[in-house]
Amino acid sequence: MTQKNLFWFRQDLRLSDNPALYEAAQSGEVMAVYIFDEDHRADFRMGSASRWWLHHSLSALNRKLGGKLNIYRGKSQEVILRLISEYSFQAIYWNRCYDPFRIKADSEIKSFLKKRGIECKSFNGSLLWEPWEVMKEDGTPYKVFTAFYQKASLQGKYPGRPLPAPNPLTLVKETLNALPLTELGLLPKIKWHASLERQWVVGEEGAQDRLACFLESGLTNYKEGRDFPYRQNVSRLSPCLHFGEISPRQVWHGVDAGSTSFHIPEQDKEYFFRELGWREFSYHLLYHFPDFPYQNFQKKFDRFPWQVDETLLKKWQQGQTGYPIVDAGMRELWQTGYMHNRVRMIVGSFLVKNLLLDWRHGERWFWDCLVDADLANNSVSWQWVAGSGVDAAPYFRIFNPVTQGEKFDPDGIYTRRFVPELKNMPNTCLFKPWEAPEYILKAAGVILGQTYPKPVVELGTSRKKALEAFASLPKELQFA
DNA sequence: CCTGGAGTTGTCCTA
DNA sequence: TTAGGACAACTCCAG
Questions:
Q1: CB of residue A136 closer than 7 A to nucleic acid strand B?
Q2: Of A99, A140, A289, A421, whose CA is between 20 and 30 Å from A70?
Q3: Is the CB of A394 under 7 A from strand B?
C-alpha cells in the first residue's frame, strides 16, 4: 500500500518551488488541503480585497490540481484533527507562515500532532532568509535596514535555486467534508470588484507572466523609473508574493538570469534586490517584535497628540482631500486594490503629518483595500512613514503633495487617470487647483468645492503643527 | 567599553 | 534657475 501524506497549502499557492509539497510528493500520495481559518487572526481578519484575490488564487490552484484541492473552513487544528482521524497519514507537510498569530497556532498544532505520534515537516517556502537566521554578532535582531541587508546578502547564504514542480504528483481527493470554493464566500456581495478583475491575472501562471513581463520591460531603468507612478517600472508582484503564487527565490533567480539575457544594468538589479531585502527585513522585525501591527515601535510616540476626526479620515479614504496626487493614490487603491509605492509614501505622509491622524487608521484601511495586504510589510511600512518605526528618519521629512506631484507625475498622466474631474487642468496648476486663476478653472470645467473638493487642510499650517507635535515628544527612547 | 560613521525615499530658504 | 546648506539629536552597529 502506498503511503499517504497530508499537504497543507497556506501562503504558498503554487506548485513550483514549493519545498514542502515537493518533499510530500517524493514520499507518497498527497492529499492537498486548504483551510480558510480566520479564528487565529484575532482582529486582523483578511480584508475584502485580499479575499477576492484568495478566491481566484484558490480557483486557479484547484484547476492546476485537476480539481483535487480539498477546501475547508474553520479552526485549522480542528480540521486537521478530523482529517487525521478519518485517514491514515504518514506525515503532514507545510511551509511555514511567519505572522505572530500563525506562529502561535502552528506550534500548538505541532505539539498535538506530536502527541498523537504524527510526524510534521515544515519548510521555508516564502522567505530568502529565516527571520532568526540574520542576527547581529551579539545575537540580537537588526533595527537598521542597510546593516541587516549587508549581513544577509554578503555574509548570509545566497538564495538557493528554486525547485521544480513535483513530478509525479499523485493526488487524493477527499470527498467526505471538502467544500466547493464558493462556500467560503470570499467574493464581495456588491459588485465593486469588477475593476479589480480587469487589473489582475491571479494565480501561479499569472505571477510567472508578470515576472517575465517585468524582466522584459520593467527592470531596465528600475532604479530611476520606480519612483514614477505613471511608468511601468515596478514589478507589481507584491500580491503574488504575499499569497505565495511565486516565491522570492524564483523572483531573485529570475531577475539574476533575466538581467543577463536582457542586459540589465547592474544598478537596476541591485536596487530591485534591495526591495526584496526590505520584505525580508519586515518579516525579521515582525518576528522579533510581534507588537509591530499594534504598538509604536518607539515608545515615545505613545505621547503623540493624534487628532481624532472621522470626517477627515473619511475624506482621506475616499480620495476627497483636495490634494490631487493624494486623491489619485487613494482612488487607485480603491479601484485596483493596489497603489504605487511612491504614492503610498505620499498618502501616508499626508495622513500622519498633515492630517495628524494615527498611522493605525492608515494601516487598517490599507489592510482592507490592498490585494497585497501583508501584516509584516504593512505595519513596518506604516510605522516607517509615521516615524515611529525602525529608522532614524529625521522628523522633518514631511512630503509636500504639490511638490511630489509635480516631481513624480510631471505630465499628470497618473493623476488625471484617477482624478478625471481634473483632466482638463493644465500641468502648471494640476497639483494645486486652489491657486488656479478663475479663468483657468472655468476653462477646465472645474468648480472648487463642487466638482472637486477644496483642500481639507492648509499645507503650511498643518506642516508646522506636525513639527511642533514631533518636537513635543520626550527625548528618551525606549523600544517595545 | 569606547569610537566614529551612518541612517530608503524631503523641504525650504538663500545666495 | 539652481545648487547647497540647515533642519536635532539620537540610536544603531561594526570595529
A1: no
A2: A99
A3: yes
Give the whole-angstrom CA distance, residue A227 versus residue A255.
19
Bases on strand B under 7 Å from any protein CB: 6-12
CB contact at 8 A, A285 and A134: no
The spacing between the Cα labelled CA in A383 and the C1' in B15, in angstroms, equals 37
Q: Which residues of A are catalytic?
A: 275, 278, 306, 341, 359, 382
Identify the sign of the CA torsion A33, A38, A44, A46: positive
CB within 8 Å of A291: residues ≥ 6 apart:
A480
Q: Which cell goes with A12?
A: 504558498
Return d(Cα A272, Cα A469) in angstroms, integer: 35
Q: Which residue is nearest to nucleotide C6 (CA to C1')?
A: A396
End-to-end CA distance of chain A: 54
Summarize pLDDT for A309-348 with one digit per residue, the tens.
999 999 999 999 999 999 999 999 999 999 999 999 999 9
Q: How far apart are CA A186 and CA A189, in angstroms?
A: 9
pLDDT tens digits for A62-81?
999 999 999 999 999 999 99
Cis geometry, peptide bond prior to residue A453 (ω within 30 degrees of 0): no
A114 CB inside 7 Å of strand C: no
Angle at A402 between CA A321 and CA A466, to 5 degrees: 70
Spatial CA neighbour of A347 closest among A366, A372, A367: A366
Q: What pLDDT score was predicted for residue A93?
A: 98
- Please name the amino acid found at residue A376: A
How far apart (Å, rounded) are the C-alpha atoms in residues A139 and A157?
A: 18
Per the CB < 8 A criterion, the answer to whether A35 and A11 are in contact is no
A454 touches strand C (CB under 7 A): no
Spacing of C-alpha A270 from chain mean position: 21
Query: Which protein residue lies nearest to nucleotide C8, measured between its Cα and the C1' atom?
Result: A394
DSSP A161: P
| Reported pTM | 0.96
For residues A211 and A235, is the Cβ–Cβ distance under 8 A? yes
Which of A59, A327, A70, A44 has the alpha carbon at shortest distance from A200?
Answer: A59
Query: DSSP label at A73?
Result: E
Q: Which amino acid is at A285?
A: L
- Specify the nucleotide whose C1' lies closest to residue A278 (CA): B8
Indicate if CB(A475) is under 7 A from strand C. Answer: yes
b or e along A297-323 (b: 16 or more beta carbons within 10 Å of the residue's beta carbon)?
A: bbbebeebebeeeeebbebbbebbbbb
